Amino acid sequence: MPRFSIIVPSHGVAGRLSLALDSVLAQSFGDFELIPVHDAPDRAEAEVVRERAERDSRVAPAHSPPSDGLAGARNTGMRAATGAYLLFLDGDDVLVPGALAALDARLADTGGVDVLYTEHERVPWWEGETTNPAAPLLAKAPDGAFAPDRAPHLTGVRLPAWSAVYRRTFLTERRLAFPDGHFTDVGFGALVAARAERVAVLRSVVVRHLVRRQGNRLNLPGEHHADLLDQAGLALADAAVRRLPVERRGPLFEQLFAAVLKTATHPRRLTRQGRRAFFRRASGLYRRHRPAGFRPPGGRLGVQHRLLASGSYAAFRALRAANRTAAGVLGRLPRPHGLRTRLRYRLGLRRPLDPGLVVYCAYWGRGYACNPAAIHARARELAPHLRSVFLVEPDQAHTVPEDVDHAVIGSRRYWDVLARAKYLVNNANFAEDVVKRPGSVHVQTQHGTPLKTMGVDQSTYPVVAAASGSFAKLLGRVDRWDYNLSANRHSTQMWERAFPGSYENLEYGYPRNDVYCTATADDVARVRRELGVPQGKTAVLYAPTHRDYATGFDTGGLDLEAFCEAAGEDVVVLLRAHYFYDRGGARSTGRIIDVTAHRSSEDVCLAADALVTDYSSIMFDYANLDRPIVVYADDWDVYRETRGVYFDLMTAPPGPVVRTPDELARVFHDGSYAGPASAAARAAFRERFCEFDDGRAAERVVRRVLLGEPPEALPPVIPLAERVPAPAAATFVRS
Question: What does the pLDDT read at residue 587?
Fold first, then answer.
């Protein structure tokens, strides 16, 4: 029997779950079992759990449906546990180093207890002081093991479930479980404290609670706040049945109603109608369970107690009105340039949303491209009743197809459509001044799978952070997102880390990649003709990424003409620089065809028989074609240190890794770029990163977001083994 069972509910925390699990597996004290509880084998969390379970036999996953909530997940973990003591760890929190060793030592010192209460830290997600809210409570407790009557202030109400360790047989013998509903820690903590006979405290931090940027879900507005009254009623009724002495019922009552009154007076948690119902129900609980001789606290809180006891909602509402300035207010008015435009936009925001209007934008207005263009094209087929407007910069307006309606960024029409559109779709972000209106739907499509760090994860890399602008403003833009697209579970996890917000991840694949499964041999031949690829030649796409520590475009010492000569007489290079360096011109010379300015990276990929890249996200998209990929990593160590990466590409590449021009030419000259080893590496890479790109991503987005169809009605993802990528033009060794 292990000393500890650590139970980790993991629904909806894929981005941080690895930190939680690894903090347990890295403990110096190893006598434990780790029980992650997830809801389905196809969720991103399940993949994180599976990786740990495969490499460590102490990981024993359990399953609980999302409908059972946090309480159900914890109860499932309790039933599966075999350890002497139970710990509960939320999926986005961590155990501090040495935590289990400290717990084991304290339990040994106290001779074993029913409950061991511990300290915990609340760590701000970004900046601010770390706090230890349990320390004042535990400081007043006796030093050794003691009966709960000696510390009546330890009611269990003010400590979360993960700020204590529980003897498993104590919980099972007394049939203690987490009560259903929200605020389950309140009810569970009170029930445990009422039944414990021997407790102790550990005055050191065990759990580091990583505060979410979007805050605690329980603090959001909604009807779920009524569950707090359910938990309070459960705790108070249990105390009455068990006839707890008044010395213990008084602190329990006071702590419960401190939480109740905090919700009742909060400016945003309850609606006007909900606040009245909440108050009246709380008033009934108050009068029914108030202990004999209970004296309300002083100050404003004491006044609220007396109003609750009298049931006077009118007086309570008048008292609350004194703090009405703290209530939520409308967002700042937008500041588009020009007084007339500003007034026009403000007027547009007062008009009703246009339910049939969809606004698209890609790459900050660079034209009709990427995921927004693919969604737009599919919406014209599946939702022809919707009107669409693409936003473009003035110098790119001529690139928009003639049959696509567009508006120039900054124009009057631009602000008009942004003010009234029901749906806004972008692969980057809309301007700072764009207001997220209630009822509007913002879709962030992204434009690549992240190898390099993104969003707030860039903050620890000075070179990148200096060029990134305000992270606070970035997160203000993230707050407008309702949906965020993901092409694989890796991306889902990284987006949650890099862009913390309350949006819903749509694991549908990237719409722009649909063409890799739908294009025909004729399509490939047509694109090659348009790009000027000579017939019968092997087209190698060279697509390096941007270096944050460098200025201007540079091939990194790679002479492309020399590469062509050394690789073979049939090789030509399609040069596609990062879009930062697209100046509309061309660098084509000899066997080098410059396709940087070509509007569609998908067309360029279709035309290429093989890809050479460094750390560009194009490798993840190109892998859908199941064609050879070579990684030219001449400065990987520098790039990794200055830009930051999410995984070591050198240990899991999509094909051969070369570091010099000679090595690059050699793998093409001898054919190993497309040999069996290359195919094996590509297959593993595709399995991990081409998970959802099956040719129907755009359809899923349109049906779910624009047509409002339920998730279960959408086309399921076609398994990777059943997909047929677009055919390549040249012949080479393939898997």
Answer: 58
Kindly report which listed range (196-205, 248-257, 263-272) carries the lowest average pLDDT score.
263-272
Alpha helix stretches (DSSP H) within 439-488: 462-468, 471-478
How would you classify residue 425: left for phi > 0, otherwise alpha for psi between -120 and 50, otherwise beta? beta
Cβ-based burial of 17 (10 A; exposed 0-12, middle 13-18, buried ≥19): buried
| Single-letter amino acid, residue 570 | D
Q: For position 733, what pLDDT does the model report?
A: 38
What would the two tokens of residue 717 be? 């993802």
In whole angstroms, give the CA distance from residue 578 to residue 595: 11
How many other C-beta atoms can be found within 10 angstroms of the C-beta atom of residue 552?
A: 8
Note the pLDDT of residue 660.
Answer: 92
What's the pLDDT at 324? 46
Residues 6 or more apart whose CB falls under 8 angstroms from that of 415 comprise: 336, 341, 344, 345, 348
Exposed e or buried b for every residue in 667-690, given b needs 16+ CB within 10 A?
A: bbeeebbbbeebeebbeebbebbb
- Which residue in 182, 158, 160, 179 sits closest to 269, CA to CA? 182
Residue with the two structure tokens 């990276």: 601
**pLDDT tens track for 383-427:** 999 999 999 999 889 989 999 999 999 888 999 999 999 999 999
Dig out the tokens for 175 from the structure: 């049939």
pLDDT at 731: 47
Q: Return d(Cα 666, Cα 157) in angstroms, integer.
A: 68
When computed from its CA atoms, the radius of gyration of the chain, rounded to whole angstroms, is: 30
Distances, alpha carbon 46 to alpha carbons 11, 288, 474, 690, 708, in Å: 9, 46, 30, 17, 27
Nearest alpha carbon to residue 533 among 607, 601, 585: 607
> How many CB atoms sit inside 10 A of residue 708's CB?
8
- Lay out the sheet containing 629-632: strands in order across: 592-594, 571-575, 538-542, 610-613, 629-632, 657-658
Amino acid at 315: A
Residue 24's nearest CA partner among 227, 135, 162 is: 162
- What is the CA angle 49-39-213, rounded to 5? 75
Cβ atoms < 10 Å from Cβ of 231: 26
325 pLDDT above the threshold of 50? no
The lowest-confidence range among 132-146, 263-277, 480-494, 544-558 is 544-558
Tens digits of residue pLDDT in 440-487 = 999 999 999 999 999 888 887 776 666 666 788 888 899 999 999 999
203 vs 98, 158, 459, CA distance in Å? Answer: 14, 16, 33
376-400 residues labelled b (16+ CB within 10 A) or e (exposed)? bbbbeeebeebebbbbbbeebbebb
Neighbours of 228 (CB within 10 A): 24
Q: How confident is the prediction for the chain on average, in pLDDT?
A: 89
Do residues 454 and 428 make contact, with C-beta atoms less than 8 angstroms apart?
Answer: no
Q: Is 232 helix (H, G, I), strand (E, B) or coil?
A: helix
The answer to whether 188 and 232 are in contact (CB under 8 A) is: no
pLDDT digits (tens, 9 = 90+) for 676-687: 999 999 999 999
Burial 556-580 (b: 16+ CB within 10 A, else e): eebebeebbebbeeebbbbbbbebe
Residue 332, pLDDT above cutoff 70: no
Half-sphere exposure (Cβ direction) of 416: Cα atoms closer than 13 Å? 8
Residue 375 · residue 511 · CB < 8 Å: yes
What amino acid occupies position 364?
W
Helix 14-25 and helix 44-55: axis angle, to 10°? 20
